[in-house]
Specification:
The complex is a heterotrimer of chains A (167), B (340) and C (421).
Chain A: H1 3-9, H2 11-30, E1 42-44, E2 54-56, H3 66-70, E3 76-79, E4 88-92, H4 101-105, E5 111-113, E6 128-129, H5 143-146, E7 150-157, E8 161-166
Parallel strand pairs in A: 1-7
Antiparallel strand pairs in A: 2-5, 3-4, 4-6, 7-8
Chain B: H1 6-13, H2 15-22, H3 26-47, H4 65-75, H5 86-101, H6 121-129, H7 131-143, H8 146-177, H9 182-192, H10 196-199, H11 201-214, H12 226-229, H13 239-264, H14 280-300, H15 310-338
Chain C: H1 3-13, E1 30-32, E2 38-44, E3 55-61, E4 64-71, H2 79-84, H3 91-96, H4 103-118, H5 124-152, H6 156-177, E5 186-187, E6 190-191, H7 199-222, H8 225-231, H9 239-244, H10 250-253, H11 261-265, H12 285-309, H13 318-321, H14 326-335, E7 352-359, E8 364-371, E9 379-383, H15 385-389, H16 391-397, H17 404-412, H18 416-420
Helix pairs in contact in C: 4-5, 5-6, 5-12, 5-17, 6-7, 7-12, 12-17, 16-17
The chains are: A alpha+beta (167), B mainly alpha (340), C alpha+beta (421).
Bound molecules: iron/sulfur cluster (2 copies).
Chain lengths: 167, 340, 421
């Protein structure tokens, strides 16, 4: 007879399973670990592998426009800014889905991912990053970290699953 | 020497005022309500490896969260939908709360310290509690919404499911004490030197489970069944009206828990005998501590259980709890005959 | 099986949608059945705590469900049509969004169909990497379903636990691909990133943690007497009905049918791996839960084997690697990250058709691609497992109690965005 049927047929066994459930609950009530990362105070270090906000190295870019062509969300577009001869890509974060195709296709590695994703803008225009100094080529930093949040590293642990240790 | 405030203090300390309004009545009831909901959320969070309420008053673990929530309830617009029966809709939350706090008058808080001393306090408390479902059904009907109607019907079903077992198990215990007065019951337990739960464990168990059903705590929160009927009878309520009906179920649990402690856990008597006679007010504190610990356990079950189905809860009530409570009555009877 | 289909059969049964239009009876709309008996009609969703992105129209006779009608389409995003307007590569992130919790599994058969047409095959190492991510996704998809099943009977601990533990698998996938959910990892010709350093140790730790946690799941949820009472013998799907209705995935296997696209189609690294397809005979909601638990265990077994047997070699087809300049090829070898050739934007399969299927967490997904030799497909047909399983709402709820509805919903693990596409 399966365990489920024993629970249904045998009231004593059912009481035992009730007790097991309550005991498990009590064990966790007094155990230490928590999964929550208290975000603005602690910021997870996403590591170099993360596909976050994208950064342009304008000096490397050869204006081949492959990145704009591959973008599945039409977030990347080529812009010709006044006073410049060549076109350079700009990104619209209203549309970007962080697929990273643009980074992968750039033949000269002029685009790179940064491990930052928690950015908010005040208006819609602010989400469009043109290839201007201080915009698309900007060194990203998590705003939570800038305001004093501590960086935590994610570690795998047999007992607690994910551990978040301050660096 | 008589200070100017002494008459007032004396008045406040008179049982007929103190009992219903201060302890165990409204004031402490409100404190229990606020801290218990907070503790429930905190404990569930701990079992679930989270923090629970935290950012309102971070130093004390978010304990002021409930006050913030209560304030929010006060300032939220209570929406009165067009299809409701207005008078019933507005009156029933207040009525539910009134019926819930009435029993405090009859619950003794310490030796011979009770709002209105009657020798039938146990049936009185239970009977007043049995009025709550009537108010809830009225509420469900008045709100005139499909979900509230289903919720009202569920409430009606649940009431017949637990009320019988609750009454029989209470009377089974009372049978052995040969009284229906809660104060006398505690004294009986004192003279026996044993808590009621050891004398009649079956009655205690049945009463506890029926109590969870009565206050619709998990695994019996069938009436509010969020996943099917949104919030049951309370679906249309918002703002302070919702706050009232939500608070009422916790207060009722508190009322029943006080009765449980007095019937089965020797009420205000300390676990170790003889301590109680030193200072009578200590009894009240003991009663409160026991009640509160059990309340914590009852709300902790939220972290362990899901919800029973309506017919399963009913069959639990009728097929398991009622027979068990009858056995408990026989047990008491047997003890009496055996002269133990 | 479509929503229109269910409408028409509804009138066949005699339960037409109806509102009593008598004066003074404004607020109690009820339906009537063929004999004129009043049925209580309840609309669950789309604005409801437990409906998801859909609506279920329930007709009740007392507490018994006479008929429950899934009303789908609230999150229909015209994916099939959209894919006709974009190049083959660009459809991958699109299809991912059908089942965002299981994105590797839903795009893999699409990529395989495109590869068939292009005549390329992924190198062996890429196949192993794809299998690895697919199994990680399968576990997190099952955990997601588990959490929702828990909250459907108000078991908030199961809900929080499985969403919390899912984080570990999401984290593993992130270390492999760089994104938490929308990995876009599997592309024609291979995968986008190589296995990172130290991945194996992390995965083994996660597996050992999960094995221990599953025991606690059993105690607090699966074999909790309340759960057993709610799930056992509720929503029983017989073996016959399961195959007749075309049910797929764990729902099918819980009814005793031994079928899994991973075995049937022999794709990826599966033919070389040793694993079992859990099957149960009961066909009730509890069996569907238990099959998923067992599948999580099997997936962890697969992950262990994949990491042990992972072959050396390239992770991207040579045919495309040759298209990129040598400097970039060196870059790929050093960083373990792909560099796409420019020609990749406009992949041009010859005119023809291809089909492929794959096993997702929810069941079998099927793709049929028609190409006219253009850079964009002429037609892409996707049949997702949720779409096949949606019929169960109607089939399993008939005669069940009203409170069984969330249990059945949870146990069939229906995911509305996937059904609607
Ligand atoms: S990450 Fe993807 S969506 Fe965003 S700009 Fe690059 S290609 Fe476009
Ligand atoms: S692909 Fe790279 S080099 Fe070409 S335009 Fe974009 S950023 Fe510039």
């Amino acid at each position: 007879m399966s365990i489920a049927d024993r629970i249904r047929r045998n009231p004593l066994y059912s009481l035992k399973m009730h007790a097991a459930a309550i005991a498990t609950g009590l064990r966790y009530l007094f155990a230490k670990p928590r999964m929550t990362v208290r975000y603005p105070e602690y910021v997870i270090d996403l590591g170099r592998n993360y596909r976050g906000m994208i950064r342009l190295h304008k000096d490397k870019c050869i204006s081949c426009s492959l990145c704009a062509q591959v973008c599945p969300a039409s977030a990347m577009k080529m812009y010709k800014l006044p006073g410049e001869k060549k076109m350079y890509p700009g990104i619209n974060y209203q549309r970007c889905i962080f697929c990273g195709f643009c980074v992968d296709i750039c033949p000269v590695n002029a685009l790179e991912h940064t491990p930052v994703h928690d950015i908010a803008e005040e208006d819609m225009e602010g989400m469009i990053y043109l290839p201007l100094p201080g915009r698309f080529d900007r060194e990203w930093k998590s705003p939570a970290e800038e305001e004093g949040g501590r960086k935590v590293k994610v570690e795998f642990d047999e007992e607690e699953g994910l551990k978040h240790e301050p660096e | 020497m008589l200070g100017p405030l002494d008459p007032l203090i004396n008045f406040i300390l008179e049982p007929y005022f103190f009992s219903p309004f201060i302890y165990p009545g409204l004031t402490i009831g409100l404190v229990v309500l606020l801290t218990l909901i907070w503790a429930e959320r905190k404990m569930a969070a701990k079992v679930q490896l989270r923090y629970g309420p935290l950012y309102v008053s971070k130093q004390i673990g978010g304990a002021l969260q409930m006050i913030a929530d209560a304030l929010r309830f006060f300032f939220q617009e209570p929406i009165i939908p067009r299809q409701v029966d207005k008078i019933v809709f507005l009156a029933t939350p207040a009525l539910a709360l009134t019926v819930t706090v009435l029993p405090f008058i009859f619950i003794p808080a310490a030796p011979s310290y009770v709002g209105v001393a009657v020798s039938y306090s146990l049936p009185l408390v239970l009977a007043l509690g049995a009025l709550i479902p009537v108010v809830i059904i009225l509420m469900a009907w008045g709100a005139n919404n499909k979900f509230t109607l289903v919720g009202g019907i569920r409430e009606a079903f649940m009431t017949v499911g637990y009320e019988v077992a609750l009454f029989i198990s209470a009377f089974a215990a009372a049978l052995y004490y040969k009284t229906l007065d809660l104060s006398v019951m505690v004294e009986k337990q004192a003279s026996l030197g044993l808590p009621g739960i050891i004398i009649n464990p079956i009655a205690g168990f049945v009463f506890f489970v029926a109590m969870l059903m009565a206050s619709s705590k998990l695994p019996f929160d069938i009436v509010e069944g969020e996943q099917e009927i949104v919030a049951g009878p309370f679906t249309e309520y918002s703002g302070i009206l919702y706050g009232l009906v939500m608070g009422a179920s916790y207060l009722y649990l508190y009322v029943l828990m006080l009765v449980f402690v007095e019937m089965f856990l020797s009420g205000w008597l300390p676990v170790i005998h003889g301590l109680g006679s030193i200072y009578p007010a200590l009894g009240g504190v003991m009663l409160f501590v026991k009640t509160y610990i059990l309340l914590l356990f009852a709300v902790f079950l939220r972290g362990v259980y899901g919800r029973y189905r309506l017919d399963q809860a009913l069959s639990l009530g009728w097929r398991r709890l009622v027979p068990l409570s009858l056995i408990a009555a026989l047990w008491s009877f047997g003890l009496l005959i055996a002269g133990v | 099986m479509t929503s229109q289909g269910s409408r028409s059969s509804e009138t066949d049964m005699g339960y037409g949608p109806g509102t009593i239009k008598e004066p003074g009876f404004r607020y109690r709309p009820m339906g009537r059945d063929a004999e004129g008996m009043e049925l209580y009609e309840i609309f669950i969703g789309p604005q409801h705590p437990a409906s998801g992105h859909m609506r279920i129209v329930v007709r009740l006779d007392g507490d018994i469900i006479v008929n429950a009608d899934p009303d789908i389409g609230y999150v229909h995003r015209t994916m099939e049509k959209l894919s006709e307007t974009r190049e083959y590569l660009k459809s991958i992130p699109l299809f991912e969004r059908a089942t965002i919790i299981d994105s590797a599994n839903i795009t893999w058969p699409y990529v395989r169909a495109v590869e068939q047409m292009l005549g390329v095959e992924a190198p062996l190492r890429a196949k192993y990497l794809r299998t690895l991510l697919a199994e990680i996704n399968r576990i997190s998809s099952h955990l997601y379903g588990f959490g929702l099943t828990g909250i459907f009977i108000n078991h908030s601990t199961m809900y929080m636990w499985s969403f919390g533990d899912r984080e570990i698998w999401v984290q593993l996938a992130e270390e492999l691909t760089g994104a938490r959910l929308t990995h876009t990892y599997i592309i024609p010709g291979g995968v986008r990133r190589d296995l990172p350093q130290g991945f194996k140790e992390k995965a083994l730790k996660a597996i050992r943690y999960m094995e221990r946690r599953l025991e606690d799941y059993m105690k607090i949820f699966v074999y909790n007497p309340v759960t057993v009472a709610r799930f056992r013998e509720v929503g029983v799907l017989t073996k016959n009905d399961a195959s007749r209705l075309g049910i797929v995935g764990p729902n099918l296997r819980a009814s005793g049918v031994h079928y899994d696209a991973r075995i049937a189609e022999k794709y990826g690294a599966y033919p070389e791996l040793d694993f079992e397809i859990p099957v149960m005979e009961e066909g009730d909601s509890l069996a569907r839960l238990l099959v998923r638990i067992e599948e999580i265990k099997q997936s962890m077994r697969i992950i262990k084997q994949v990491l042990d047997k992972m072959p050396q070699g390239p992770f991207f087809a040579d045919k495309y690697m040759r298209l990129i300049p040598p400097a970039l090829r060196k870059h790929v070898a050093e960083t373990g990250r792909i560099k796409l050739p420019g020609a990749f934007i406009r992949l041009k399969p010859p005119a023809g058709e291809a089909v492929a299927r794959g096993e997702m967490g929810h069941g079998e997904v099927f793709y049929h691609i028609v190409s006219t030799g253009d850079t964009k497909p002429y037609r892409v047909r996707i049949i997702t497992p949720a779409f096949r399983n949606v019929v169960l709402f109607r089939h399993l709820t008939r005669g069940a109690r009203f409170m069984d509805l969330p249990v059945i919903y949870g146990s069939i693990d229906y995911f509305p965005p996937e059904g609607d596409r």
